[in-house]
Design a protein that fits this description.
This is Extracellular solute-binding protein. This protein is α/β, with parallel strands linked by helices and 522 residues long. Helix content is 36%, strand content 13%. The protein is globular and about 70 Å long. 56% of the residues are buried.
Length: 522
């Protein structure tokens, strides 16, 4: 993988945020995340409260603790049993790696429950010593004073990939230590594609529309599927398309030292119209797409009812684990090149963060928590569980490329799938942090309130909302939220975005020039 500029910008989920429960729960559902809700309860930390009721608990002795040196960490890696077991066994190895006595317990919490669990645990001063989360959550909790910065540990390494290099930045500190990234993948069912007269996956958006149209007319399958409903995965797809259109959802004005909102930019309008055109203009998506979430989309593809799909890596893993016929006909490739010449995909993933000892169930030396984070992210340690996490987990820095399965694949996952995802990791973006090259406490709140920014496209697809007015309204809501969280005011806009102001690279799609299909412009 080519090393990119890793200078940390400025002072930059769900999903998981990645996560991102795009299919099998690899990232958080932002619906369950509210910074204001957290702040209301965090103020009563001193009050006695019930400890968190966990969705599952695994550990060396199936206990919450054994006495002196107890150390608890939470992970959301409970969706694939083999992956969960490998991570738990690796975590136990910290007991021998650490410089002092420590008894490690791994608690598994599902993404759809963890926000309530964090809040309850903080109220009851029974939080874990370390928790998996997305950096948006780590920054939020860091600003609230309940997780510790890990800047010193982070700065020991200088080979971070671009987006992880600033994913946890807030006010000159790093609050979440990147653990892994996960990218949206482009799936092709070659059997369906060949039936439609094509022998290789599309490399550009133009080819995607051409091939999808042929699939729709020559087979019984849909040409393309992804989430189309108000859904986290839907928002991730539309953000990837926006990045490929040269746009973003946020920016940062260095001169004014202020955030900007770009949701109502011409580039954002174009990407929303392009995605809507899959249904409204080109008709290559399944019927009822506006009500299809990412899980439904995955099922349609796995059942052989769609030629192309954008979805998380969990879908690939599940196909292999279930020994489905689709594995034999599926190719994973880069997201087709967009009008700006990029193959950018949405980036999910997770970080590890240490809670302040005032709020944890077990009072351990702060250095122990940092040592655990260091241990779990060292390449030698990651060898112990990355194979079982294939192809979902991808490196966050160059040194981690030198471990299996990237150097030696002992899994049932096809080599080509692993290579494709590793290559895709070179060109990723994450809503909120990419355009600004920093993070902020309000990002998680906005992500949750908008279902990962899917509300506009789902309204356009399913409720026939006016695209320009819908984006303007969403952007102004974002400005209002930010203004309530910072010491300056972002002005509301009264001017809806116009395609006439879009970059020249997008104009062939707008005008329908040459071999470029024309987008839907209501």
């Amino acid at each position: 993988m080519t090393h990119r500029d890793t200078e940390r910008g400025g002072t930059t989920a769900e999903d998981g945020h990645d996560e991102d429960p795009a299919s099998s729960g690899s990232e958080p559902d932002p619906d369950d995340y509210s910074r204001r809700g957290f702040m209301e309860t965090a103020g009563t930390m001193a009050a006695a409260g019930a400890s968190a009721g966990l969705a599952g608990c695994i550990g060396g002795d199936d206990s919450q603790g054994t006495g002196e040196g107890d150390f608890v960490w939470w992970t959301m890696r409970g969706y694939i049993p083999e992956e969960t077991q490998a991570i738990q066994e690796t975590a136990e190895g910290f007991e021998d790696w650490a410089d002092e006595e420590v008894n490690v317990t791994t608690n598994v919490v599902t993404w759809d429950q963890v926000f309530e669990e964090w809040t309850a645990a903080l109220q009851g001063q029974s939080a874990p010593n370390v928790s998996e989360m997305a950096n948006e959550h780590a920054v939020d909790y860091g600003a609230s004073g309940v997780v510790r910065p890990n800047t010193e540990l982070f700065e020991q390494y200088d080979d971070w990939y671009e987006v992880p290099s600033y994913w946890g930045d807030y006010e000159d500190e790093v609050w979440g230590f990147p653990w892994f990234i996960e990218v949206r993948s482009f799936y092709t069912n070659m059997a369906i594609l060949e039936e439609a007269g094509h022998d290789s996956p599309p490399e550009t958006w133009e080819e995607l529309i051409e091939m999808g149209t042929d699939v729709q007319s020559e087979t019984d399958s849909a040409g393309f599927v992804s989430g189309g409903a108000q859904d986290t995965g839907t928002g991730q797809v539309i953000y990837g398309l926006t990045a490929q259109s040269g746009g973003d959802f946020y920016g940062y004005d260095e001169d004014a030292d202020e955030w900007t909102v770009e949701m109502d930019s011409p580039e954002s309008l174009f990407s929303h119209l392009w995605m809507a055109s899959l249904q409204e203009e080109w008709g290559i998506v399944p019927g009822g797409w506006a009500g299809t979430d990412s899980t439904d989309a995955e099922q349609l593809y796995r059942e052989g009812n769609a030629a192309f799909m954008i979805n998380s890596g969990d879908a690939a893993n599940e196909m292999v684990n279930q020994e489905e016929e689709t594995v034999e006909t599926t190719e994973l490739s880069l997201i087709p090149e967009g009008p700006m010449g990029t193959n950018t995909a949405f980036m999910g993933g997770s970080c590890l963060s240490a809670f302040e000892s005032d709020y944890t169930q077990h009072d351990v030396d702060d250095d122990i928590s940092m040592s655990f984070i260091e241990y779990m992210t060292e390449p030698e340690t990651m060898e112990e569980y990355f194979t079982e996490a294939t192809p979902n987990f991808l490196p966050v820095r160059e040194a981690q490329e030198e471990i299996p399965p990237f150097t030696e694949n002992e899994t049932e996952i096809p080599d080509e799938w692993i290579a494709s995802r590793l290559e895709q990791a070179e060109d990723v973006a994450r809503y909120g942090v990419t355009g600004s090259e920093r993070n902020a406490p309000f990002l998680g709140d906005i992500e949750g309130a908008t279902d990962a920014y899917s509300v506009a496209i789902s309204g356009i697809l399913g409720a026939e909302q006016d695209p320009q007015e819908t984006l303007l309204s969403l952007a102004n809501d974002m400005r209002e939220t930010i203004s309530g969280d910072v010491d300056y005011e972002l002005e509301q806009s009264t001017d809806p975005p116009e395609l006439d102001d879009a970059p020249e690279e997008l104009q062939p799609w707008i005008e329908g020039d040459g071999d470029t299909p024309q987008i839907w412009t209501p």
